[in-house]
Backbone:
């Protein structure tokens, strides 16, 4: 296969199906409907979203259903994750009040983590969070929580402290207040969702190109097979890196959710 043959063509070449351009680019982003329930279509992303929730429930039940004086290695691992989210994220960021929001933050972290790890799970290879609707929904729920908390705790003072920050010099308050208003009520949910979505899509596509591209060259059994081996080998460290990214993005999303809740409870800070 020469370099000019790798370029996507408008018309599909049956002899080189891997180099075919899709008839509709939406195929790259949409998930086909697998079956319908009462006229409601169910696709792969929905099934994996439910599966991620069930995996989280199963993990917590397996670790805490029958407490032991000396926990198993699995129990120690789960307790370590739960303790970290409680002590370092919920209480560490929000303060003593963070215990109230710990269940939400733990659920958020574990669901995103499992959904991210689906991208490198054999026979799945599909990160649930690479569909914008899911990060957007999680960001919207987080946004509703911290906005409602802000007004419930501080009343109109919550909005006043945002649009007219007393810690800023008087001449700069209108500009800073305008920036803070748009940041708090418009940009926070958007950036929270896009950050997670973009990182998972980018990593998934890079890993897919390296692994699938390497296999295509290897199976040709010609001069490009060596290139395929090198190409496939390059995907192995990327695979390990994706594990790190999956954990990191779940942590960042949960940490920012805690920060936003903290700033709603104490807007003067």
Residues:
């Amino acid at each position: 296969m020469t370099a000019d043959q790798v370029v996507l063509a408008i018309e599909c070449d049956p002899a080189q199906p891997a180099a075919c351009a899709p008839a509709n680019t939406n195929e790259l982003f949409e998930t086909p409907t697998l079956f319908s329930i009462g006229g409601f279509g169910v696709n792969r992303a929905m099934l994996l979203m439910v599966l991620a929730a069930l995996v989280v429930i199963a993990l917590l039940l397996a670790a805490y259903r029958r407490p032991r004086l000396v926990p198993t290695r699995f129990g120690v691992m789960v307790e370590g994750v739960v303790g970290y989210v409680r002590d370092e994220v919920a209480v560490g960021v929000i303060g003593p009040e963070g215990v109230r929001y710990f269940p939400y933050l733990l659920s958020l972290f574990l669901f995103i983590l499992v959904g991210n790890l689906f991208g490198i799970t054999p026979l799945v290879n599909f990160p649930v969070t690479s569909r914008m609707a899911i990060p957007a929904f999680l960001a919207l729920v987080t946004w509703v929580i911290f906005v409602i908390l802000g007004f419930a705790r501080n009343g109109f003072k919550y909005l006043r402290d945002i649009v007219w920050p007393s810690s800023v010099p008087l001449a700069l308050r209108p500009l800073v207040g305008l920036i803070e208003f748009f940041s708090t009520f418009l940009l926070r949910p958007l950036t929270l969702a896009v950050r997670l979505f973009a990182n998972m899509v980018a990593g998934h596509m890079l890993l897919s190109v390296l692994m699938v591209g390497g296999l295509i060259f290897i199976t040709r059994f010609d001069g490009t097979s060596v290139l395929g081996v090198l190409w496939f080998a390059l995907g192995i460290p990327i695979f390990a890196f994706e594990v790190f990214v999956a954990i990191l993005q779940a942590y960042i999303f949960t940490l920012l959710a805690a920060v936003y809740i903290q700033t709603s409870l104490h807007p003067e800070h």
